[in-house]
């Protein structure tokens, strides 16, 4: 389960939800695993900022809809202020536009609140290891649902492809298609370590936090999930 090795310090987690029972339930599930320690709870976006500043967690589980400062704005402020903190968004409905907004605000993953307890624990460990929680295909569906037919300006990153070498552009396209590093290595006849190095270089050049945000940028740049080519959608 997950990639957190035994002997490491427990992952520090802050749970944010305006419903006390839901918050307590999530905290109980996470605290039941030896690899995780819930170090703080918050019932609003404002309290979440304070909890993160005080507790310095590795992971924040963030509800989207809360009175006052909502989860999207809280996520944006946390990831801007503490880039090392990874935020997992909790949403009630699949293909929820608020969840997509949270990803754009800097969240590393999204989960449905109906997730099984064991899967929640695994998701926290997976995100802490730097990977996306949702399957790439689900991530792509979410992104395509909200970008299709909408003109989302790319802004200063519109020249992003010019920063990449031809090989890096090829690997970036594969990431946008939802391919894992082993799959990319097999497709391009490269060593796994070589692909990993290229992916790390791509993330550094494009200022990306993880694969979820690579997919988002790929869609903003007009990449086709089927072909991986950068053809601007209508």
UniProtKB/TrEMBL annotation:
It comes from the Bacteria. One of its GO terms (biological process) is phosphorelay signal transduction system. The modification 4-aspartylphosphate is found at residue 63. Gene3D superfamilies: 3.40.50.2300. The keyword Transcription applies. Residues 12-128 form the Response regulatory domain. It holds the Pfam family GerE. Residues 157-222 form the HTH luxR-type domain. The keyword DNA-binding applies. GO terms for molecular function: DNA binding. Keywords: DNA-binding, Phosphoprotein, Transcription, Transcription regulation. This is Response regulator transcription factor.
């Amino acid at each position: 389960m997950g990639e957190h090795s035994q002997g490491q310090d427990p992952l520090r987690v802050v749970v944010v939800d305006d419903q006390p029972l839901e918050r307590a339930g999530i905290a109980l599930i996470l605290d039941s695993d030896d690899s995780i320690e819930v170090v703080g709870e918050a019932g609003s976006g404002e309290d979440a900022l304070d909890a993160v500043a005080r507790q310095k967690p590795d992971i924040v589980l963030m509800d989207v809809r809360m009175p006052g400062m909502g989860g999207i704005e809280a996520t944006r402020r946390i990831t801007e202020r503490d880039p090392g903190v990874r935020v997992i968004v909790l949403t009630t409905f699949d293909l929820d536009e608020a969840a997509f907004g949270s990803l754009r605000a800097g969240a590393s993953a999204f989960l449905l609140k109906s997730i099984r307890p064991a899967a929640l624990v695994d998701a926290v460990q997976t995100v802490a290891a730097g990977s996306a929680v949702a399957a790439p295909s689900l991530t792509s569906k979410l992104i395509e649902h909200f970008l299709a037919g909408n003109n989302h300006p790319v802004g200063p990153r519109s020249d992003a492809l010019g920063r990449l070498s031809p090989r890096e552009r090829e690997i970036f396209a594969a990431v946008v298609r939802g391919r894992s590093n082993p799959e990319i290595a097999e497709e391009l006849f490269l060593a796994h370590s070589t692909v990993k190095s290229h992916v790390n270089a791509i993330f550094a050049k494009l200022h990306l936090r993880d694969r979820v945000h690579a997919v988002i940028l790929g869609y903003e740049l007009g990449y086709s999930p089927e072909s991986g080519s950068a053809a601007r959608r209508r």
